[in-house]
Give the backbone structure.
Amino acid sequence: MSEALKPGATIGILGGGQLGRMLSVAASRLGFVTHIYEPGANPPAGQVADVVTTAAYDDKAALLAFAGAVDVITYEFENIPTEALDILEAHCPIRPGREALRVSQDRMTEKAFLQGLGLTTAPYADITDQASLDAALAEIGAPSILKTRRFGYDGKGQARIKSVEDAPGALADMAGAPSILEGFINFTHEVSVIAARGTSGEIACFDPGENVHRDGILHTTTVPARLSGSQRMDAVLLAGKILNALDYVGVMGVELFVTPQGLVVNEIAPRVHNSGHWTQNGCAIDQFEQHIRAVVGWALGDGQRHTDVVMENLIGADMDRVPELSREKDCAIHLYGKAEAKPGRKMGHVNRIIRGEG
Amino acid sequence: MSEALKPGATIGILGGGQLGRMLSVAASRLGFVTHIYEPGANPPAGQVADVVTTAAYDDKAALLAFAGAVDVITYEFENIPTEALDILEAHCPIRPGREALRVSQDRMTEKAFLQGLGLTTAPYADITDQASLDAALAEIGAPSILKTRRFGYDGKGQARIKSVEDAPGALADMAGAPSILEGFINFTHEVSVIAARGTSGEIACFDPGENVHRDGILHTTTVPARLSGSQRMDAVLLAGKILNALDYVGVMGVELFVTPQGLVVNEIAPRVHNSGHWTQNGCAIDQFEQHIRAVVGWALGDGQRHTDVVMENLIGADMDRVPELSREKDCAIHLYGKAEAKPGRKMGHVNRIIRGEG
């Protein structure tokens, strides 16, 4: 696929959660048909997609049928099994490409990649056992944080080490999974850059958003973020460096810690990102459409925002607040169609438009 | 249904065209599931809805099954056969209600209703044959326009009468259908008000948009429209009068001619309206979501716009311009997923965001 896809073409999306759902809606807005591949029954994205395949990632026949039915494949999460990707890629282009997945699926690989680009990350060390953890703590010190190298999200697979006495418990929390110790960064706040790169190499960044977490889950993103002009420029330049190094096609979320010494890259996600949901009500072309535009080979939106926005996630019982939120002025509600509001489950978000004083 | 519907409830939509498609997307954004009822195969709305029933409006079994499967019924067009509505309404609430359909399905009824409210319309007369047309022309004069009383849209079922010699040809164009002669209004421009009324009677209007037509089809809507403060107020007040008189629930499009003598009501449409598409990129809550909010009994958005917008329809071969439009700054593309770009067919629209000079 070197030519741009035309409206009417089919976009395959791996994963049927809220990100797949919002990608699907954005694709339909550009006249594309969507096909969701998701192991779980009744996925949120299925309600708004044209076709849904319910099958496991090791179902070779289903993967082949899916790859044969779509014109390009993209995904809503980075932990797709390598074997599934091998089968799919033999028949259909996958965007963003495999290198982005390889790098971001493993925190060790990701950190090495980022440092290789000359970017600043937290100090880190590979942890396989108590001995390697002890050695790493002697070097990196506490407070620090132990994380599984793979499959972590929303604070899962993480254990804080406030002092060396916490080390054995933290290691036990990893349940034998290969892990990484990351040094604590003394940051004033966290921002993220939602950056996109198209098939012809052009790059467009949305304005950085400032993130606040609660219980390890993103709570709010506020745009504009508190950043100086030079920090803003640094954020864009480093995001561009990452995208170019990966020959990336699509939208990426880049989380950054803001410190007096400069920006520190926390992590990257090779997909649309929760901290970019504000773009739905702040930009002519949001992160979901931007991602679709990139993977189908269209021109990108320029990312300029037309209004300031505060995004707030609705987690679990926050769903009870929907009637009240619906009565709030300038508050755009986005719900994901999930049946059960479990604690810690992302059920939706709101984008509050912040009007100028004028 | 006196209580507000909760996310997860199912909204039935009669009609699977682009309006049904965009209503469906708006409903999903609020966590509702959608079910489209449409006689034609592969409707545009079907690609983004959860369930599609493909059946005729005289298929009683299909209508009953549909009414039994949804929690509220709404529609994207006003010409639904009365018999179908009777069957549906016995099992499920229809919003907006029957009175709005009765009034707007027939241009004679609509004109009488509007004049009964004390609103200004074009002079008009019921036309059944050449004699009644001659008598009406003697009264109303030329130029004037002959229209079928029912089933007209996008300039179809209309014939201009520039002078009395055009009368026989115009009458022949009506092919025996009951018709209405409307006097010509000397207007400077046309605007429309997209107004909404909720289940508790609250009313919210979007800013009036200024419409330009080409070949009888809406070409552009520009917001804000050229209107004085008092004209703006008149537009809102008369829209409110119409909605209240009908005990209306949902969004209505009210087309107005602007004349030196004041606003003249051209026509009303008991549904979301092409001239309200700009709200998708100009407001926190667009006309589609506003309509869904009304029919499910939620609070309405206040209709305030956050940016100026020019909406342009993409008709037929305009689809060839999509690559060029995709490279345009601040231009949001909305395509309808229609397979064939026939002349005169609405294929999509763009909303161009107009930024202030500041």
